[in-house]
Amino acid sequence: MPSRRRLLSALAPYRWVLEPALAVALFGAWFVTGLPFELAAALALVFYCGAVALSRILPAVSLALVWVAVLLELTEQESAHGAFRVIAAIAVVTALVGVAAHSGRVLRWVDFASAILLAPAMAYLFTVRGELKFPQFGPVIGGYYTSQGIGFLLMSLLLAVIFVAGWLLGFLVARQRAAQAGPGSDGSSVLVWLASSGGAEVVEDDPDRAQLVRRLTRTQLTADIIGAVVFEVFCLVVGEQDRTAFVVITVFAVAVALRRMSPAVALSLAWLAAVVQMTTGHSILVSDLGVLIVLYATAAYGDRIVRAAGLISAGLGALVAALYLTVTAAVAQGYYDLLSSAIASVALQFAFLFVVSVTVLGLSWVLGLLVRTWRNARVARRARQAAELDRDRAVEDVVVEQERTRIARDMHDVVAHSLAVVIAQADGARYARHSDPDAVDEALSTIASTARSALGDVRVLLAELRQSHPADSAGGASGHDGPQPSLADLDQTVEHIRSAGLDVTLERTTTGEALGSAQQLAAFRIVQEALTNALRHGDTAHPASVVLADAPEERGQGLIITVRNTMRDTTVEPTTTGSLSRIGHGLPGMRERASLAGGSLTAGPDGQEFVVSAFLPGAAA
Length: 621
Description:
It is a single chain. By secondary structure, the protein is an alpha+beta fold. It is built from 18 helices and seven strands. It has a five-stranded mixed β-sheet with strand order 3-4-5-7-6. The chain has a two-stranded antiparallel ribbon with strand order 1-2. α7 (146-179) packs antiparallel against α13 (304-332), α14 (342-431) runs antiparallel to α15 and α14 (342-431) crosses α17 (517-537). The chain is rod-shaped. The chain starts with a helix and ends with a strand.
């Protein structure tokens, strides 16, 4: 792959030589076939070759030259040789592809209209003015037999299919080039690389990305090539052996080989093979199975436009096949008089062939669409499973983060409370060392007790951090087997605060039996944090109060917690709790605990006091 990219990059400045080289090759084919020199034919061929040469750099001039060449031939009385007609048709198809690939939006649709209008003109040159003649039977209208008119219409239809297929190929080249616009995009495929750097910048906003050339693995490409070779060998063994049949079978085999790599190119080649098959007088061949394979591929692997082209080809192909088989069968059976009673039988045969053809071709396309839908559903299912796995991982990460947050909050409560008590006791013991030596021993005892209790709580929390699968943290419940504090442990906490120098009154008007373990833990931590804040930031000269009461009936079963303490003078201590000039982790942590327990918490100054009020619902609520 890198070597191919380097080769294409080295040849990039010489891409413009491609179309002039094709033009020279077509002009040289005129001499190789030994055609007689005629001034009108030579001039028309110059216009055809000029259209091919300029299709990349001057698409508008190229399209105009095609029309000039066709009109020049129509005005001449002498008919051109059959080989010349084939060269001219190849030049028209090549020019139509180049104009569609390199022109702007308006000129591209003018090119499409030209592809349809040029078909009857070229059919007239092939049949009426050319060497391709149809049997003459039926009524004479305008000097021509009805059979000739039918042949002209059939030839016009076949040429229109070829020209429109060429236009579609150029259109898809333009779409993919626009979709892959950017540095280094020319190396994606040789076909798109050859078509790049047109005369006009193409801008496409189609949401369905172009898929003219699909990337295949080496195994898929090898399997497609081997399958095409087996298909051709099978058709040669079972089918006819003449030269034109071999050409038809080979083109169908190439289409089968390209069906997954480029469904659009495969569809164009299938139409080309079908037209060659009908114009050379062949009936149904074994190689026609390639049509079904290609139609399946357009629906299974093509983008939106290729799928639509495959569906249209199924209907149009059924019409053309039914008409061709009906006409050839009528000629073979001697139905030369189209006004005889046999016309009813011919019409019935046409209807039958059309229904059978559209059913077979349509089923092939529908089968490809079903396989595509099944494949997309499988991809979507895998994507959904991957998304669900990512969601589960995200949920697990959130649970882990919540558990860590809960543990960090518990750590803050334990450490902050214990250190506040330890600092207060140590300061009090230092000041009372000379006046009251017994108070020193009591303070040291309190410090040891508090530190020992805090150490036990910290060990519990650290043990939880070592757990690989943290338990559900809803409501603050711990997954560790260590004991968790409850309302019954408030007395010890209050004694610690009192011993640290803050007088606390505890008033209970409820037993707290209606609270669950999560609410009990939340209530304990809220009171503990509120008293710790009062000790650190409040006025310790005035007592603090803690009131635990049942919630009123209108709020439902639950617990009301009210903690009050007197604030310090904010002019002296600008960072006190009462002034709220600095918010730490305490107040947000209390609010979060109350919220996780299903309740609510408010905290703020009330006159000279700082009030914390919380509501925690009962377990039944």
